[in-house]
Write a structure and sequence with these properties.
Radius of gyration: 27 Å
Structural class: alpha/beta
CATH class of the largest domain: Alpha Beta
Helix content: 40-55%
Largest sheet: 6 strands, parallel
Shape: globular
CATH architecture of the largest domain: 3-Layer(aba) Sandwich
Strand order of the largest sheet: 4-3-2-8-9-11
Number of helices: 19
Number of strands: 19
CATH topology of the largest domain: Leucine Aminopeptidase, subunit E, domain 1
């Protein structure tokens, strides 16, 4: 790292005066043409993403500290408050545990980060960051491609740096934050150095005792390896400087400028609200956009991806029309939404047949980009019902409720409410969950389901239909989840019967049994049978929670760590919230 750092500023800084749209286009071009992307992140990036540190936000989240210590020079924002001379260690950790929670552990401003990450899709990339909030990793960027040079909010160290090791403190900080009284934590919660017995501190570069542990040096080595590979390749490298200022310019800002000066293969996109200066001597390979990154990053991404996705969309549309006898001459409008709907419709009506590898490659990339655009939701993003609703149910720490599009979930498996033919919905752009899942997964999912059904018809007869309440596991293909479990729910006609209730219970029970047998640790249920199949929503929600709890109680070592009840409608959200906050249904 120290060989990369530079304390020498450029001597020919300028603010570029080209119109904003031209700067966005230039930035997109530099990124598109690059084979390697190096992100450089400063505090301005998280600020643009929505992180707050002072003002009303500080008053709302740190009001007890302002009241205790006074609204002087320190208690103005999270940065200043960190330097307050706290009277004892109990007070010190009382404050810092709160800052770690608010500024890192609980912070989620990953929307803009996901868009930033998407700029490097399909390219080799690395991230150099001076931020301590962990948002890049939370947004899904690989941890092994991140080097946080200044520490983070998740680790502690010996205050005197007596040994080169840091300690994960996330659980400790959660406990401290809950137990804090009158701005202090209990003495027994105060960490002590396990080597010298002295005080411990945040693993943040706030003094000369900052610990650079083995993980720090490993990250440094990976960064240096990336740089060597990129520079020795002779291929184009784009440095994307997001929100770095002149507080610690020798880590990212000055070194990026030096790289562009010394290597013709390097270009730089500098994004900063007020300080997006570039070097006049390198202006043809640099663009500095003085604008809110909450606007400039999406605008650049749109330019970077629009042509690529547009080309893929046209390819898929032409290929699907050519593949179809009935729709070969289908007339489609020129707008993107019309083309997307046409592609989805042609996929929906297409029978389960083979298709070229070229088509599958383009389709897979297109659908994976769509998934990123929608925003992938990880298990860490979804609180348990104990965390979200203070539920006291016995499995409240293993159940969650999440409202949204199930095709965004990056979990072990999502559950598809299938029909008895098990081939997905053939109605173009239908709004059922079966259609949504097959459309987002790609045509391979229908082909796999067809193969499974053919095998079963060989065994059970040509008229075989999938029975109600069973569970069938398939791959997920272009969905963020690892697998899809298909189950056929009961279709309700007239008055609800006990038999249909038992059928729905079997759906949940057999899906969970499938998870246990295949070592799937997290599963997201849709609201089985409540849509097109007319099962009453309130009873369906009660059965879902009830059956899940019974299964977990009866199979203590099933390995299922999280069951998510995915809802789409507000009425289902309210029903599930009601049932998880009441007493046991199965006792």
């Amino acid at each position: 790292m120290r060989t990369f750092m530079s304390g020498i500023p450029a001597r020919d800084y300028i603010f570029q005066t080209e119109p904003y749209e031209e700067q966005i286009e230039k930035a997109a071009t530099l990124i598109r043409e690059a084979d390697y992307i190096l992100f450089g992140l400063g505090a301005g990036m998280s600020t643009a993403a929505g992180a707050q540190y002072g003002g009303d936000f500080f008053k709302e989240n740190f009001g007890e500290f302002i009241e205790t210590y006074g609204a002087g020079q320190y208690m103005q924002d999270m940065y200043s408050a960190g330097f307050y001379p706290y009277p004892d260690e109990e007070s010190y950790w009382g404050y810092w545990s709160r800052q770690a929670m608010v500024g890192g552990i609980e912070l989620d401003v990953t929307g803009l980060y996901r868009q930033l990450i998407a700029l490097a899709q399909g390219k080799k990339s690395f991230c150099l960051s001076t931020n301590a909030d962990g948002q890049m990793e939370k947004a899904g960027y690989p941890a092994e491609q991140i080097f946080c040079t200044q520490g983070d909010y998740f680790h502690i160290q010996c205050a005197k740096g007596c040994h080169a090791k840091t300690y994960d403190a996330v659980s400790r900080f959660r406990q401290m934050d809950q137990a804090r009284r009158e701005c202090k934590v209990s003495s027994y919660m105060v960490p002590k150095c396990p080597v010298c017995g002295g005080k411990m501190n945040m693993n943040l570069r706030i003094d000369q005792y900052f610990v650079e542990d083995e993980a720090w040096y490993d990250a440094d080595e990976r960064f240096q390896k990336f740089l060597r590979e990129a520079l020795h390749s002779g291929k184009k490298i784009c440095l994307i400087d997001c929100g770095t200022g002149f507080n610690t310019p020798m880590i990212i800002r000055f070194p990026f400028e030096k790289m562009v000066r010394e290597h013709r293969q390097c270009a730089m996109v500098r994004l900063n609200l007020k300080e997006a200066v570039v070097q006049e001597s390198c202006a043809e390979r640099e663009v500095g956009i003085n604008a809110d990154m909450a606007e400039s990053i999406p605008d650049i991404l749109k330019k970077v991806k629009s042509k690529t996705q547009s080309e893929r969309l046209d390819f898929l549309l032409d290929a699907l029309k050519e593949d179809s006898v009935q729709y070969k001459n289908l007339q489609v409008g020129n707008s993107e939404i019309e083309k997307r709907n046409a592609v989805r419709s042609l996929m929906n009506v297409r029978m389960p047949l083979s298709i070229s590898d070229d088509f599958l490659e383009v389709q897979d990339t297109f659908l994976q980009e769509e998934a990123k655009e929608k925003g992938i939701v990880t298990l860490a993003d979804i609180p348990t019902v104990r965390e979200a609703y203070k539920s006291s149910r016995p499995f409240a720490d293993r159940m969650s409720i999440w409202q949204g599009d199930i095709t965004r979930l990056q979990v072990g498996a999502i559950v598809n409410a299938a029909n008895s033919q098990m081939l997905g919905c053939f109605v173009p752009c239908h709004r059922c969950i079966d259609n949504a899942i097959h459309s987002a997964a790609g045509i391979q999912l229908r082909n796999e389901c067809n193969h499974i059904m053919n095998q079963r018809r060989i065994r059970f007869g040509r008229q075989y239909d999938e029975p109600t309440g069973t569970a069938t596991l398939t791959s997920a293909y272009n969905l963020p989840c690892e697998s899809v479990i298909h189950t056929v729910g009961p279709i309700v006609y007239g008055r609800l019967t006990d038999a249909w209730k038992d059928d729905l219970r079997n759906c949940y029970r057999n899906v969970l049994q499938c998870c246990m047998e295949h070592k799937i640790t997290s599963v997201a249920f849709c609201c089985i049978s409540t849509g097109e199949f007319h099962f009453p929503n309130d009873i369906a929600a009660q059965i879902a929670v009830d059956t899940t709890e019974q299964f977990l109680a009866q199979n203590e070592n099933c390995g299922i760590e999280r069951v998510i009840f995915n809802v789409f409608k507000d009425i289902d959200l309210k029903l599930y919230q009601k049932y998880v906050c009441t007493e046991n249904l199965y006792s």
